[in-house]
């Protein structure tokens, strides 16, 4: 894929893709016309980079992880995620009580708002498998 296609599919700017490429995070090959061609797995690599950036890792740390093919699983990170889910479970129980007797349109609005968040959670879970 050319850089423009990668940018369009990933939602990451071409400038950021250039930066990641120059930092050694993204592999590419040159076409006969001297275009950079990225493999299809570059989209997964970009997703991993975004997840690692959200964990406040530096580009050097991310490069080490990406190049080594490692996933940064630490006890602290796992404990933090578990604590967050426990807190969310408690909030869900409270919301279920509040929505139990709510009018149908309120339930629909809440469902629509939560659906977009579920996409992000599903993407995160997919990265862990």
Kindly summarize this structure in a few lines:
The chain has 129 residues and is mainly alpha-helical.
Provide the descriptors you would attach to this structure in a database record.
two-stranded antiparallel ribbon, single chain, about 70% helix, mainly alpha, DNA-binding, MerR family transcriptional regulator, about 130 residues, Multidrug-efflux Transporter Regulator, Chain: A, Domain 2, about 5% strand, MerR-type_HTH_dom
Please describe the topology of this protein:
Elements: H1 3-10, H2 14-22, E1 29-30, E2 36-37, H3 42-54, H4 59-68, H5 75-100, H6 104-128
Antiparallel strand pairs: 1-2
Structure description:
With 129 residues, this protein is mainly alpha-helical. It has two domains: 3-68, Orthogonal Bundle (Multidrug-efflux Transporter Regulator, Chain: A, Domain 2), CATH 1.10.1660; 75-128, no CATH class. The protein has six helices and two strands. The protein has helices spanning 3-10, 14-22, 42-54, 59-68, 75-100, 104-128, and strands at residues 29-30, 36-37. It has a two-stranded antiparallel sheet with strand order 1-2. Strand 1 (29-30) and strand 2 form a beta hairpin. The longest helix has 26 residues, at 75-100. The protein is elongated, with a radius of gyration of 19 Å. The two termini are 25 Å apart. The model has no long low-confidence stretch (mean pLDDT 85). InterPro entries: DNA-bd_dom_put_sf (IPR009061), MerR-type_HTH_dom (IPR000551), MerR_fam (IPR047057). Residues 1-68 form the HTH merR-type domain.
């Amino acid at each position: 894929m050319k850089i423009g296609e990668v940018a369009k599919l990933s939602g990451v700017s071409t400038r950021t893709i250039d930066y990641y490429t120059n930092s050694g995070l993204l592999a590419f090959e040159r076409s006969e016309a001297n275009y950079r061609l990225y493999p299809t797995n570059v989209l997964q690599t970009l997703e991993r980079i975004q997840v690692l950036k959200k964990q406040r890792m530096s580009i050097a740390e991310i490069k080490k992880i990406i190049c080594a093919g490692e996933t940064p699983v630490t006890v602290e990170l796992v404990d933090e995620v578990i604590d967050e889910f426990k807190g969310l479970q408690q909030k869900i129980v409270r919301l279920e009580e509040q929505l139990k007797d709510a009018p149908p349109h309120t339930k629909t609005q809440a469902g629509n708002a939560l659906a977009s968040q579920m996409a992000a959670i599903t993407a995160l879970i997919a990265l862990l498998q």
